[in-house]
Amino acid sequence: MIVTDETLEKAKQEVMADIEAHTEWREEVGRGKMFGFLLYDGGMLKAYSGQMLGRSDWDGYVPAIFDYLQPDGYFKTHEAEITQLNKEVEKYRGINVKGDERRRLDAIRAERKERSQALQRWLFTQFRITNPEGGSASVLEVFGEYAKRNALHQTVPPSGTGECCAPKLLNYANSHGLKPLALAEFWYGESPKGEVRHHGRFYEPCQSRCQPIIWWMMRDEGKVKREGRALLSLSEGKMPQDTRHLTLLYEDPWLIAIDKPCGLLSVPGKRQLPNAQDMIGHRVTHRLDMDTSGILLAAKTDEVFVAMQRLFARHEGVKKEYVAILEREMGERSGTISLPLSADFLNRPRQCVDYEHGKEAVTEYEIKGRMALLRPLTGRTHQLRMHCAHSDGLDCPILGDKLYGSMDAPRMYLHASRLEFIHPVTGKKVVIESDSQFMVNN
Description:
alpha+beta; ten-stranded mixed β-sheet
């Protein structure tokens, strides 16, 4: 069986039709849920993340790796005990307790924490997964092995590990001797409040929960990709056809600026791909996303590098402009977006809007039709991409943004077109510009 984009789209539409046939699911899936499918020689498996209406055993969908929802089972029994402790703690809300009552409250909280951690660890020992060779291990063991091999500190799985679509599908395929050809997950329903998810869009499995499990269940990490077009790495950008020649935009005895093409890393990464810093031969003072093109500045001395990093960090005397093509017409408008951002730790490198713990992120914008001029006043990761895509921002992603967008395109149409700053050595204003037609023509 040859898996093509059309094959994957047809399979997705089949799963979506089945979802919509379950009218009893309408309210829950309408709020947003991840679904997935696995193609194998002779058929297709379907899965949903977590539970559906509190059940893990709907016909036509792979079952949970471990069903811990039995009413009188170990998990439910101990969960009820923790719930009772929560109620005891809640009684003290808004009360300034002292003396014996304070010691009692602290003891209840300590017991609740100990019971919760013990129950979580027990649960992770019950989630046992299989690999194609018939091996079996708990997700707790898998995370420990993965952390050891990759020198990571996180040896205990995050809450919810083993309940996503990809682990369910691969575990079922391995335990039933099925040969996977392709695996894909897509979002159905509304986007979560703090994130950007688009109805019907494919997404890669979450990194923190699923990556160690997928690694263990596949072992040969390229296996599914070679045999089919598995959608496990959608965030990889398109590499430029020729990275040997970079356009020089500015140079003096202390600084150098080039026109970075889309698909080229700014600095060295884990995957040992070509990067601008190595090609320039000097340290990059700020970064552009791999899929963003445009002005990239590097310093020729350590002193200037430190000075420029300080300017970029504080946005003192620095002005940046980006040009973007949006997914749809937006008319003419201008204004300022202020949405605090923080890392989505379970789905790196994605970011989320976090009004409680996020860092301030501010962008000025001018829009004419689908063209947007964006001026970031802060320098947060994926700031412009999130401010365009999120419903509290422009609610219109940048065309070709595979993390936050909904439309496919040859590239992500975001280009760093202008950079203005005060030179750390001469004290003079420096203005560097890059023709945004570069973005349109590539």
